[in-house]
User: Fold this.
Amino acid sequence: MAWMALVFAGVCEMFGVAMINKLHQDRNWQSLLLLVVGFGASFGFLSYAMETLSMGTAYAIWTGIGASGGALLGMLFYNESKDWKRILFIAMVLGAAVGLKLVG
Assistant:
């Protein structure tokens, strides 16, 4: 259950990052509310996951999902660069998170 909460925390983190971009574009209270809800849910699920999982592993995986997911959202929806080097480094971040799970 903790692993599912951790993955959901990462997805909420990605949502929060997307809402930062939306708030930057729109500057309205709905975007701000969604940003706060996204990051609030992310921290809540991360906190729940850390009751079972080690802090280092949970934080690294949460950060990896958020950072990689944010970069992928940027490439898919905001016309950011899709250079092969960028994709390689995103894969390395995700690979490191999986490696932490395997050795932790």
